[in-house]
Design a protein that fits this description.
This protein has 21 helices and 8 strands. The protein has about 450 residues and is an alpha/beta fold. It folds into 4 domains: about 80 residues, DnaA, N-terminal domain (GMP Synthetase, Chain A, domain 3), CATH 3.30.300; about 190 residues, Rossmann fold (3-Layer(aba) Sandwich); about 70 residues, Helicase, Ruva Protein, domain 3 (Orthogonal Bundle); about 90 residues, Orthogonal Bundle (Chromosomal Replication Initiator Protein Dnaa, Chain: A), CATH 1.10.1750. Helix 11 crosses helix 12. The protein binds adenosine-5'-diphosphate and magnesium ion (MG). Adenosine-5'-diphosphate (ADP) binds next to helix 6 and helix 13.
């Protein structure tokens, strides 16, 4: 048995005792790269799968391998150092990184005209941790068998946590697996403006026919169609036409379907009829794994205390983590020395202090009212309308938990209510959060927005 056959045999057995999703997540892109006497070296795509395999699967792998070849005594794992294929440089610049890209000669990627996919986003450079592993596994399964298992696939989570990356990775992978399939990636905002233009120019039927011919429709940030009735109506028909013919639909949003205000009921129930996956917030170890992977990618070595400083201070947004790294990278290029901790603190000052962990009354009220699609004044007034009472209590709760405001002051802000009303509201929400998963979800998403600096 050569090493390829040996590994195939191991995988075949592992597959039997692992869920399809887990198998896809942890074993894709693995192989045996050397078999020396009694030791085997397995290559894995990134440091996270290395950790995962050596901690969670090591014993099973060893057992299976030893059942196939008794001489083997040790297994080691190594992160595959082959760089992914270089992609042609192009004129395309990502807005946010424009300066860095130019100065540092980063690889640029060409967005495909046909699919609108950015080849930069792949599964290979997507790091998996407990915060995103189920979403990743579902996405991977869809890329292997589009149109069947999870349709639609609906991924939600806070800003900068990898939704777009994951959605585009599915698109790119499907393109690789099934070169004939027609794939379209569209941010929902752009989709909306296309619909509006088509209606104005009386070309809506043409647009619909065009969209019905797609095999895989990826619609990013679907929350943007909230309140846009005409767009929702057209999308509903397109959705049904695609779904009926087993075409794959993949959606992302910053919140679950039931928390998108002003979304037509029939669309909501369509979304909920598929697979809904959330992306949470990466824990310390995962943030470290992501940062290290990005350092490898960008070819920069940072000192341990610097890595730790970044990971401890930037917690809720992977895009900001990359932003921090880019700043250090520029410093490194310009001065030819790796920044020490003092320099790092200075360079990252604005990222770490603002907006990472600061908020205020205005921001909380604004975020809560936007989240529930309410007017700010309604939230602050005394109306007892049911759809307003709960969001108002949540806003009060957040003023208490995030700003440590006093109860009398909270009461005053919300229509001059007595401090006992404020206490009641805060305690009620605190209690309900313990038992009500939907509420916990909403509050977490609101908090993410409060601190993500998007408002
Ligand atoms: P979102 O769409 O949720 O706002 P993005 O997909 O745009 O977030 O991700 C923000 C940045 O972080 C991107 O540059 C992306 O490549 C990177 N990123 C997000 N998640 C991961 C991950 N799991 N592994 C590696 N990079 C990631
Ligand atoms: Mg996005």
């Amino acid at each position: 048995m050569n090493k390829e056959e040996l590994w195939q045999a191991v995988l075949a057995q592992i597959q039997l005792s692992t869920s399809r999703a887990n198998f896809a997540t942890w074993f894709h892109n693995t192989k045996i790269i050397s078999e020396d006497n009694d030791e085997i070296l397995i290559s894995v795509p990134n440091s996270f799968s290395k950790e995962w395999l050596s901690n969670k699967y090591h014993n099973s792998i060893l057992k299976i391998i030893r059942s196939l070849n008794k001489n083997i005594r040790a297994i080691n794992y190594v992160v595959n150092l082959e760089k992914p294929k270089k992609i042609e440089r192009s004129k395309y610049h990502e807005k946010e990184n424009k300066l860095e890209i130019n100065q540092l000669g980063f690889d640029n990627f060409e967005i495909s005209q046909k699919t609108n996919l950015n080849p930069r986003y792949t599964f290979d450079n997507f790091i998996i941790g407990s915060f995103n592993e189920t979403a990743h596994a579902a996405a991977w399964a869809v890329s292997e068998n589009p149109g069947f298992d999870y349709n639609p696939l609906f991924v939600y989570g806070g800003v900068g946590l990898g939704k777009t990356h994951l959605l585009e990775a599915v698109g790119n992978k499907i393109l690789e697996n099934f070169s004939k399939k027609k794939i379209v990636y569209a941010p929902a905002e752009r989709f909306t403006s296309k619909i509006v233009t088509a209606i104005r120019e009386h070309k809506i039927e043409e647009l619909k026919t065009e969209l019905r011919n797609i095999d895989v429709l990826i619609m990013d940030d679907i929350q943007f169609i909230a309140g846009k009735e005409k767009t929702q109506e057209e999308f509903f028909h397109i959705f049904n036409a695609l779904r009926e013919t087993n075409k794959q639909i993949i959606l992302s949003s910053d919140r679950p379907p039931k928390a998108i205000p002003a979304l037509e009921e029939r669309l909501r129930s369509r979304f909920e009829g598929g697979m809904i996956m959330d992306i949470g917030i990466p824990d310390f170890e995962t943030r470290m794994a992501i940062l290290k992977a990005k350092c490898e990618e960008k070819n920069i070595e940072l000192r341990a205390d610097v890595l730790e400083y970044i990971v401890s201070n930037i917690q809720k947004n992977i895009r900001e983590l990359e932003g921090a790294l880019n700043r250090l990278l520029i410093f490194n290029k310009m001065n030819n020395v790796s920044p020490d901790i003092e320099i790092t603190k200075k360079l990252l000052q604005s990222l770490v202090n603002f907006p990472a962990r600061s908020t205020n009354y205005k921001k909380i009220v604004q975020t809560v009212s936007q989240f529930y699609d309410l007017k700010k004044d309604d939230l602050l007034a005394t109306t007892r309308r049911k759809e307003i009472v709960k969001p108002r209590q949540i806003a009060m709760y957040l003023l208490r938990s995030e700003l440590k405001e006093s109860y009398p002051s909270i009461g005053r802000k919300f229509g001059g209510k007595d401090h006992t009303t404020a206490i009641y509201a805060c305690e009620k929400i605190a209690r309900e959060i313990e038992n009500d998963l939907n509420l916990t979800n909403d509050v977490n998403l609101i908090k993410q927005r409060i601190y993500s600096g998007t408002i």
